[in-house]
Amino acid sequence: MSVSTRRRSAWVALAALGTSSILAVAGLTPAVAAARSGSPGATSALAADVPAALPAALPAGAPAAVVGVDGEYTQRFLTMYNKIKDPANGYFSAQGIPYHSVETLIVEAPDYGHETTSEAYSYWVWLEALYGQVTGDWAPLNHAWATLEAYMIPTSADQPTNSFYNANSPATYAAEYNHPSSYPSQLNSGVSSGQDPIAGELKTTYGTSDIYGMHWLADVDNVYGFGATPGAGCELGPTATGTSYINTFQRGPQESVWETVPQPSCEEFTYGGKNGFLDLFTGDSSYAKQWKYTNAPDADARAVEAVYWAKKWAAEQGKSADVAATVAKATKMGDYLRYSLFDKYFKTIGCTSPSCAAGTGKTSAHYLLSWYYAWGGATDTSAGWAWRIGSSHAHFGYQNPLAAWVLSTDADMTPKSATAKTDWATSLERQLEFYRWLQAPEGGIAGGATNSWDGAYATPPAGTPTFYGMAYTVAPVYNDPPSNQWFGMQAWGMERVAELYYASGNAQAKAVLDKWVPWVLANTTVTSTSWQIPSELTWTGKPDTWNKTNPGANAGLSVSVKSYGQDVGVAGDLSRTLLFYAAKSGDTAAQAKAKGLLDAIWAQNQDPLGVSADETRTDYQRFDDTYVAGGNGVYIPAAWTGTMPNGDVIKPGVSFQDIRSFYKNDPAYAKVQTYLNGGAAPTFRYHRFWAQTAIAGAMADYDRLFGTSTPDTTAPTAPTGLTAGTITSTTVPLTWTASTDDKAVTGYDVYRNGTLAGSTTTTSYTATGLTPSTAYQFTVRAKDAAGNVSASSAALSVTTTATPVDTTAPSVPTGLATTSVTQTSVGLTWVASTDAGSGVAGYQVYRGGTLVGSPTGTTFTDTGLTAATAYSYTVKATDVAGNVSAASAPLAVTTAPVTPTGTCTVRYTTNDWSTGFTGSVRITNTGTSAITGWALRFSFTGGQQVQQGWSASWSQTGTAVTATNLGWNGTLAPGASTDVGFNGSHTGSNPKPTAFTLNGSPCTIG
Fold first, then answer.
1. Distance between first and last Cα of the chain
2. For residues 592 and 609, what is the distance between their CA atoms, to the nearest angstrom?
3. Alpha carbon 495 to chain centroid distance?
4. Residues 104, 105, 107, CA angle at the centre, nearest 5°?
5. 531-541 β-sheet, strand order
6. Distance between CA atoms of 545 and 559, rounded to whole angstroms?
7. What sections of 171-296 are H helices per DSSP?
8. 119 catalytically annotated
9. Burial grade of 161 (CB within 10 A; 0-12, 13-18, 19 or more)
10. What pLDDT, in 10s, does the model give residues 800-837?
11. Separation of alpha carbons 300 and 297, rounded Å
């Protein structure tokens, strides 16, 4: 599925306190989207501050296998869980923070894979809730929340001036515009904002003015270098370690991810222009240093939803006390989540002019989960001010009636504030009406509604349908691509409706599902070799104006499926929707379709990291797009200039990658560059955190809702139609007709003369390494996930051909070129030779007249060379028969000159546990000249082993460890530092290295 159809974060129009000298810019909302035992430490269960003891770093090993747990799908869940939690697979940072994706080169709502979102955290909480249900171990759930609290909910130090907030004047108005080129938006104190009706009771209830909600986006590895580190500082810069609060979207519904300008969530004017990044978004007479955060309501609601189920399952296990503290925190989060139920500037609902009435009491509440809420304030506590806003825009895909039901009916999870229970009870009813209002006759749910037409409280066009005075909009919040084009919004939104129906039997939820489920079943296809679900939707018409007592039929609204695809994450959440619905309604077709999807994905899409499918990214052509007047591209106002922390210049005419030059050093960037140069669109297989947990969750749901203790003892049918393709002297290609199984065939074993020769998940296999002129007999057996094996296929007898006499040498290698040149090594590559006889066996690489290597592939690195020395290389090809080609054209190469090495200091620290540890290394150039290219070397004395590392290329031979620079941190100016690190293992003792060298020179240990 093209990411052009994937959900993208919204922009937030701007808000500030009512003073012309003060600017407060709201951040943006959540992304598309996106661990172990431990306790929150010594803090109160309801404290918003960083826990006294931060969550431990990710353990070095995957979780131990869980024994005594029945169920085929439960075992699949545990397989997925272990893959996600295995540090070697790269789902978590060294701090234990979930990345948006394992892969770094991915652009959708997060503009970099190793950012994270509140969405990813909420899916993590769901994952650990399911793990607790399966195993009875609730420590991982509590640890996930502690990490969320430490790194995604701003601490008191991160929101220092909330005490100055005036609920009677929440923020100063600034209009939203339909195109980024209309920004900055001028603050306008002449437009009144209403009263904030919940600030006072929240402060009374919790004794603090701080907000307990997640910010939506963080730069986990501080790749941008803003260094807005939770609890530690505002703009600490590129040398700061750990996660950093950032923002992207800011300028209206047309601003796609390709047009954003990343900025820190705490602004001290250190980076950007003279006013930091503020004057790109909001116009004012002067600008103040400030902090600002944006909450993604669907993520916070999902976290509440997951903790509700954890509470229920823990109670069934007699372990309510194990999750009580986390339940209390989720309930508190639900109390603050009410800010999303209010209009942006707390104006009355049904507003159609900037001069409409300011809200009082709850007249500004639309009671829907809107696209965001945001808050901010000054960094100067001696001249403090603060602001808060809700949002006027509501998308059906963000609603969570299950969370509203829990927060209004569950005695353990009803928030403590005086009016919270009533607010959530009203929201539950309003959300269910919202779904019914937006449902097309076919079953799909249309976009949403806004209380601020065009983001400026304009009057909607005549004939626009309304919902309690809010105007219908087919694509709420963002238009590039349209926010209701991606089918994932359907799966996300309806899963929560299905959970509500399952948990409570709500009749309104059932009525919506009874129309939606048949539409989805008709558009979902599963076979033994493939599957597909809707990908993009097309909408026409509009709903009727809502009448609660007499709802319309929406005859003028229609939806059709524009395209189909294999989005594994959406398929996971779609399966969960169908399973909850089927478990309550008894709909066997929905259950069977969900099971078929899960079985197909398990059989067809597994890989070492989880599950994935090919994604062709035609939108990556926008990497180098520059602004076209009135169209796409990064808009920078005329004469505005600034810099990113790494020195990238921000000015009119820059592209997405111009202000993200680090992407050019990404291992996958060559595929993008080939595309930009006119080649084919690149294809990737991504492992998004949210998608993996969605599939894992669906597997756990299946056994919990439908599983039995009866094992699968039915074997697949025997393969048929075994035939051979073109036989050679050493190979036999085999194909056969697929077997069938009551659940799913997971693979085939191929036998040669009664001995297992190999296995495959497809219906083809090539036997290799055979002897010429020899008879062989092949059979094939099918197997399923439970380990059942079919009877053998009918035997196939074949005889390999005789070995032909080969006297023809391979073609001469061409295109000899360098891939890298250092002081001591030369990397070489060339175009593969061909051979019509026995086949190319390998190559001989010559330095001058001396043979220096015999690789089998078309690359080779010659090492042990002398700096600043000229060498000449040639390559010859050899075939299996021993024939050798003529030499390639020679390639002259001169190694890099010696770089003067300054003196250095190394700071080495570890975070240890059981048999693992995280090593953190800071390298500082204390000399007077720059270091260009570096290699750090040290030795372990206790048997430690490096498992995986970051920010450097790590290798280990015996006890000797070497870390060499990457492209982005290879130059160290005098006084400059770089931070690198790794996860390692030890056997119980972890002594620190006693000596370090940088480019051969000893370093001081500091």
1. 50
2. 27
3. 20
4. 115
5. 525-526, 531-541, 557-565
6. 18
7. 199-206
8. yes
9. buried
10. 999 778 889 999 999 999 988 888 899 999 999 999 88
11. 5
Report DSSP letters for 455-467, one per residue: TTTBPPPTT--EE
Q: Is the peptide bond before 230 cis (omega within 30 degrees of 0)?
A: no
Answer for the pair 183, 280: CB distance below 8 angstroms, yes or no: yes
Give the list of residues 6+ apart from residue 74 with CB closer than 8 angstroms, or none: 134, 699, 700, 703, 704, 707
Long-range contacts: 63-67, Cβ < 8 Å, 24+? Answer: 63/36, 66/134, 66/135
Tokens of 704: 């919990």
3-state SS, residue 885: coil
Beta strands in 635-754 (DSSP E): 642-643, 649-650, 683-685, 720-724, 732-737, 745-752
Of residues 108, 111, 210, 298, which has the active-site annotation? 298
- The two tokens of residue 705 are 């809702």
**Ordered DSSP codes for 29-89:** --------S----SS-TT--SPPSSPPPPPPSSPPPPP-S---HHHHHHHHHHHHHH-GGG
pLDDT in tens, 861-906: 999 998 889 999 999 999 988 999 999 999 999 988 765 555 899 9
SS3 779: strand
Sign of CA dihedral 809, 812, 817, 823: positive
SS3 577: helix
Cα torsion for 586, 587, 592, 594, to the nearest 10°? Answer: -100
Q: Is the pLDDT of residue 987 over 90?
A: no
Q: Can 298 be counted among the known catalytic residues?
A: yes
383's CB contacts (< 8 A; 6+ apart) are none
> Of 72, 111, 119, 741, which residue is the catalytic one?
119
* Residues 273 and 51 sit within 8 Å (Cβ to Cβ): no
What is the C-alpha separation between 424 and 404, in angstroms, rounded? 5
**pLDDT per position as a tens digit, 422-453:** 999 999 999 999 999 999 999 999 999 999 99
Contacts of 219 (CB under 8 A, 6+ apart): 112, 114, 115, 226, 243, 244, 245, 246
Could you give the CA distance from residue 689 to residue 711 in angstroms, rounded to a whole number? 31
Q: Is the pLDDT at 40 greater than 50, yes or no? A: no
